[in-house]
């Protein structure tokens, strides 16, 4: 099966889980080290789904870019990370993915008929 791109909109289940998620790992009990981007990328690859990018700001929502065969694989990966009780996830399938970071020869995708895939 061909892997597809997904954008996830996520929010925390509570203010307490938000604070826990955003606490630097060296301030947790027990403390641990912060991951660099290469380490995060390696940890984000999985047998279910792979998180390619994440954006977290000061708002209630944050966003992730995933590749997976289907939505269920993303939910399995979130569960494997033990985040299913911390965050709420809304998964949006994306039919077109273009990126300056990828800088590929991939051709733009459009719906075959009409304006919906």
Please provide a written account of the structure:
This protein has 117 residues and is α+β, with helices and mostly antiparallel strands. The chain has a domain at 4-24 and 37-94: Alpha-Beta Plaits (2-Layer Sandwich). Helix content is 22%, strand content 28%. It has three helices and four strands. It has helices at 15-22, 37-44, 71-80; strands at 4-12, 49-56, 61-68, 87-94. It has a four-stranded antiparallel β-sheet. The longest helix has 10 residues, at 71-80. The radius of gyration is 16 Å and the shape is globular. The model has no long low-confidence stretch (mean pLDDT 91).
Q: How many strands appear in the DSSP assignment?
A: 4
Major β-sheet, in short? 4 strands, antiparallel
Q: What structural category characterises the helix and strand content?
A: alpha+beta
Radius of gyration: 16 Å
The name of the CATH superfamily of the domain at 4-24 and 37-94 reads Dimeric alpha+beta barrel
Low-pLDDT sequence parts: none
SSE pattern, N- to C-terminal: EHHEEHE
CATH topology (level 3) name of the domain at 4-24 and 37-94: Alpha-Beta Plaits
Question: Layout of helices and strands, plus pairs?
Answer:
Blueprint: E1 4-12, H1 15-22, H2 37-44, E2 49-56, E3 61-68, H3 71-80, E4 87-94
Antiparallel strand pairs: 1-3, 1-4, 2-3
Summarize the model shown:
The chain has 117 residues and is an alpha+beta fold.
Short descriptors:
four-stranded antiparallel sheet; 22% helix; alpha+beta; Alpha-Beta Plaits; 3 helices; 117 residues
